[in-house]
Amino acid sequence: MREKDVEKKRRKEQRVVEEMIRLYCRKNHSDHSGTGQLCPDCRALSDYARERSEKCPFMEQKTFCANCRVHCYKPEMREKIRTVMRFSGPRMLLYHPGMALWHLICSKREGRTGDKRA
C-alpha cells in the first residue's frame, strides 16, 4: 500500500473515531453552550485516539484498532474508548449512515480474510 493511501486510511479512521466521540459527548454530557465543542474529558480522549493513530505501525494492514493484536491504548483510555464505541456504534446508523456502513463492510471484510499480521 502506498504511503498516500495509508495516510488517507489513517485520516478516515480518525474522522470516524472523532464522530463517535462527538456523538457520545453530545448525548451524555452537557451541551457546552450549543457550541458543538467536546467536553474536556472527551477532547482528551479524542486527542489521545488521534495520537495513537498517528503512531500506529500497523495502519497499512489493519482496519480498526479493535481488530489489532497490539493494543497501544493505556488501560484507562481503552476502557473509555470502549464505552464510547458501545454507545455510539449502534447510533452511527442514524447520525452518520455512510460512515456506519463503511465501518461494517470493512469489519466484515477483515473478519473473512483474517488477521495477516505476525
Shape: globular
- Figure out the total of helices: 4
Low-confidence stretches: 113-118
Tell me the span between the first and last alpha carbons: 18 Å
Helix content estimate: 55-70%
Q: Strand share of the residues?
A: under 5%
- Mean pLDDT across every amino acid position: 83
Total beta-strand segments = 0
H/E series, N to C? HHHH
Quaternary class: single chain
- Taking all Cα atoms into account, the compactness measure Rg is 15 Å
Structural class: mainly alpha
Largest sheet: none
In words, what does this structure look like?
The chain has 118 residues and is an all-alpha fold. Helix content is 67%, strand content 0%. It has four helices and no strands. The protein has helices spanning 3-28, 40-54, 75-95, 97-113. Helix 1 packs antiparallel against helix 2 (40-54), helix 1 crosses helix 3 and helix 3 (75-95) packs across helix 4 (97-113). It is globular. The chain starts with a helix and ends in a 5-residue tail after the last helix. Residues 113-118 have low confidence and may be disordered.
Short summary of the structure?
The protein contains four helices and no strands. It has helices spanning 3-28, 40-54, 75-95, 97-113.
Features:
118 residues; mainly alpha; disordered C terminus
